[in-house]
Amino acid sequence: MAKLKQSNSVCVHLLLLFLCASSCVPISARVAPLLRSYEKSIFGSNFHTVYDTSKYGLLQLSNGLARTPQMGWNSWNFFACNINEEVIRETADALVSSGLADLGYVYVNIDDCWSFATRNLKGELVPDPKTFPSGIKALADYVHKKGLKLGIYSDAGAFTCQVRPGSLFHEVDDANTFASWGVDYLKYDNCFNLGIPPKKRYPPMRDALNASGRTIFYSLCEWGVDDPALWAGKVGNSWRTTDDINDSWPSMTTIADLNDKWAAYAGPGGWNDPDMLEVGNGGMSYQEYRAHFSIWALMKAPLLIGCDVRNMTAETFEILSNKEVIAINQDPLGVQGRKVQVAGIDGCRQVWAGPLSENRLAVALWNRCSKVATITAAWNALGLESETHVSIKDLWQHKVIAGDAISSFSAQVDAHDCQLYIFTPLTVSLSEE
Ligand SMILES: *[C@@H]1O[C@H](CO)[C@@H](O)[C@H](O)[C@H]1NC(C)=O
Ligand SMILES: *[C@@H]1O[C@H](CO)[C@@H](O)[C@H](O)[C@H]1NC(C)=O
Ligand SMILES: *[C@@H]1O[C@H](CO)[C@@H](O)[C@H](O)[C@H]1NC(C)=O
């Protein structure tokens, strides 16, 4: 009985601790709402309904990173397991020489297969001596000298997906190893997870990275299991919302729709991640890749290039290097754009939009079907007040196509193509709400 009492009081203490943890931490970590005020002469009264951001900011991880979505490159989509230190170095070189690094693509992320099949006698991860003979520290030094950052990969399980050692129950050792190598980013996968829920397996690595003393971007890749948008804001800087993308139109569109569901939860410090870009890998048309890049930019997805940047076509480079599209993704307001209007059979005619800084809007007209279509964006659907006059710049044609539009805007869009615009209101009064 006495024993029972004692354990009860331990429970009470734990409960108090828990209550404190769940009420004190979020308050201290709470950040300002994303859309506190809006310009009433420009936007309609439905603005906060169309662009709900109410779920953002309650539980943000505060390591200072990811103020805008991460940009860079990752080895998986093109190279899969066929990587080595030469490929990584040459990719870093190409990011710089092509000008992509200057546009913001700074993370050079090594995915699965860098590690040897077993840990060393001290229990540490070691790079595969055949493919990474100089080691990861040397690679980190190499990319840092070029002004870039190095990312690495591990898994919240017994093994990685390609059956290298996983970091589950080795979080502290592995985080310290990554920090000692000068790693800047960790993608943390979900294979061989022993059936333990992600909510249990992902926080220990957050804590271990933090305790390592090195600021390391923490990218959760748990495939959207248990709806990470609901809880990962306090765990990572980004969280995958879906299964892996593949280089096809059905995969890309399915993932865009799934990621859209969580728009209200994303913002500076923590982003929804619909997976890396397939632009340039050959499985989609130019129009489809342009749509892929436009929509990823608009929904504030990480822009992680997934092709061989040493050998890009002019079209691939044109898409990836569109400064104005990148600027939508990196806009300081940090509100995820979303699907705001769907029309036509099979939802062919779609309008996606999102608020930008300075009372502007990013607007995409996306033809999801295989026949050319005229798509109309109505001001009401965009959250614009019906009398608002806007000028419209087409970001793929690089020109202003309407100087003074009002109430709605229509354009013809090719099959599977996506037009992307910035709407700038012509009448801006400076009054705050
Ligand atoms: C560790 O977490 C604290 C609290 O969120 C934060 O202030 C600090 O910058 C973090 N340190 C690192 C190295 O990430
Ligand atoms: C790619 O993804 C689509 C949609 O999820 C799926 O139907 C298809 O089987 C996938 N293809 C490959 C090669 O995995
Ligand atoms: C470069 O890409 C083209 C396809 O765009 C391919 O045919 C060629 O083999 C690639 N070259 C190298 C060196 O990988």
TrEMBL record:
Residue intervals passing through the bilayer: none
Organism domain of life: Eukaryota
Main EC class the enzyme belongs to: hydrolase
Protein name from the UniProt record: Alpha-galactosidase
Signal peptide per UniProt: 1-24
Limits of the Alpha galactosidase C-terminal domain: 346-422
GO molecular function term, any single one: alpha-galactosidase activity
Sequence similarity: Belongs to the glycosyl hydrolase 27 family.
EC numbers for this chain: 3.2.1.22
